[in-house]
Design a protein that fits this description.
Strand content: 15-25%
Protein name: Immunogenic protein
Keywords: Signal
Structural class: alpha/beta
CATH architecture of the largest domain: 3-Layer(aba) Sandwich
Helix content: 25-40%
Largest sheet: 10 strands, mixed
CATH class of the largest domain: Alpha Beta
Signal peptide: 1-19
Order of helices and strands: HHEHEHEHEEHEHEHEHEEHHH
InterPro entries: TRAP_TAXI
CATH superfamily of the largest domain: Periplasmic binding protein-like II
Number of domains: 2
Organism: Azospirillum thermophilum
CATH topology of the largest domain: D-Maltodextrin-Binding Protein, domain 2
Number of helices: 12
Shape: globular
C-alpha cells in the first residue's frame, strides 16, 4: 500500500522531497557477468539518499538482458531508467535498426553518456583468426537475438564483405559463448562492453584468448556511415597476454523517460556529478575513471531529459 502510494505520487510528478517517503528508482543494467551491472550498482549507490545522494531516493540496479530490454522496461514503466548502447538508443527513438517496424520510443530521454563500450571480437588463442575476414567458415557467436551486439556484429561482418551465411553463426549470451570457446566448441564471439570485463578476463587468465582487431579502411567506412561508432583501443595488458588491439566502440548511456519529473532527474544528475563522488567513481570500477562530466553529453543521439539538460547548461557543459 505504502509503496503504491509513493509510486503513484512520483507518477503524478511529485518530487522526492514532497513525497515524504522513499521514491524507488529502478535502473535496468545487464547480465551480472558484464559491465552494466556493477557500474549500475555504483551509480545507484551514489544517487541514493542513504549514501548522501537525493534525499528519499532509493535507487537499485536491476539485472536484465541489456539495452533493448532496458528501453522496453522504461517504455512500459517497469523501470525508471536503464543502461543502453548509444546505437540502440538511437534506433529506439527513431524506430529504425532493432526497432524497425516496432514503432518509435518517442519518450526516450538521455541522462548521461557514461563511457565507451568496446566491440570485442574474442577468439581462441589457437584459432588462427587474425582479422575479421578470417571468420569465414568459423563457428562464431553473434550474441542473442534482440541484442545490440548482434546488430553491431552484422555491421562489422558486412564491412569486411561477410554475412551470417559466411560463418557458422550461433546466438549465445557472452557467458555461454565464453564457456563454449573454453571447451573448443566455438572459435570466436562478439561482445560489446567496457574493458576489462570479468568474464573475458577470467577466460584470458585460465585458457588464453586473442582479440581480433577491427581496423583499416573497413572500420573507417563504418565510422563514416554510422555516427554512433568511434575508434577505440584495448590497451596491452587489459587482458592477460593480449597486446594492444585497435577496434571500435559505441557509448554506454544512462537513459530514462520524458515522463520522469524534471526536478527528480535534475537532482539525480546533480547527485551523480557531485564532487565527493569523483573519488568513488574512480575507485568503484575500472570504467569509473571514464565517467566524466565533461563527456556526459558527448555522442548523444536522442534528446536529453529536461532535468539533465538544465543541470548541464548550469555547469557550462552545454552552451
Amino acid at each position: 500500500m505504502a509503496i503504491g502510494a509513493v509510486l503513484g505520487a512520483v507518477a503524478l510528478g511529485a518530487t522526492v522531497a514532497v513525497a515524504q517517503a522513499p521514491a524507488f528508482f529502478r535502473i535496468g543494467t545487464g547480465g551480472t557477468a558484464g559491465t552494466y551491472y556493477p557500474v549500475g550498482g555504483l551509480i545507484a549507490n551514489l544517487i541514493s539518499g542513504n549514501s548522501g545522494g537525493v534525499p528519499g531516493l532509493v535507487a537499485t540496479a536491476v539485472a536484465s538482458n541489456g539495452s533493448v530490454a532496458n528501453i522496453n522496461a522504461i517504455n512500459s514503466g517497469s523501470a525508471e531508467a536503464g543502461f543502453t548502447q548509444s546505437d540502440v538508443a538511437y534506433w529506439a527513438y527513431t524506430g529504425t535498426g532493432l526497432f524497425e517496424g516496432k514503432g518509435k520510443v518517442e519518450a526516450l530521454r538521455a541522462i548521461a553518456t557514461l563511457y565507451p563500450e568496446t566491440i570485442h571480437l574474442v577468439a581462441r588463442k589457437d584459432s588462427g583468426i587474425k582479422s575479421v575476414r578470417d571468420l569465414k567458415g568459423k563457428r562464431v557467436s553473434m550474441d542473442e537475438p534482440g541484442s545490440g551486439t548482434l546488430v553491431d556484429a552484422r555491421i562489422v561482418l558486412a564491412a569486411y564483405g561477410l554475412s551470417e551465411q559466411d560463418v557458422k553463426a550461433e546466438y549465445l549470451k557472452p557467458g555461454p559463448a565464453g564457456d563454449r570457446l573454453r571447451d573448443g566448441a566455438l572459435d570466436a564471439y562478439f561482445f560489446v562492453g567496457g574493458y576489462p570485463t570479468g568474464a573475458i578476463s577470467e577466460l584470458a587468465t585460465s585458457h588464453g584468448i586473442s582479440l581480433v582487431p577491427i581496423e583499416g579502411p573497413e572500420a573507417d567506412k563504418m565510422l563514416s556511415q554510422y555516427s554512433f561508432f568511434a575508434k577505440d583501443t584495448v590497451p596491452a595488458g587489459a587482458y592477460k597476454d593480449v597486446p594492444e588491439t585497435k577496434t571500435i566502440s559505441v557509448n554506454a548511456q544512462l537513459v530514462t523517460s520524458a515522463k520522469q519529473p524534471d526536478e527528480m532527474i535534475y537532482n539525480i544528475v546533480k547527485a551523480l556529478w557531485a564532487e565527493p563522488n569523483r573519488a568513488k567513481l574512480d575507485a568503484g570500477h575500472a570504467k569509473g575513471k571514464m565517467i566524466r562530466l565533461e563527456t556526459a553529453t558527448a555522442g548523444i543521439g536522442i534528446p536529453l531529459h529536461p532535468g539533465a539538460e538544465k543541470f548541464y547548461r548550469e555547469k557550462g557543459v552545454l552552451k
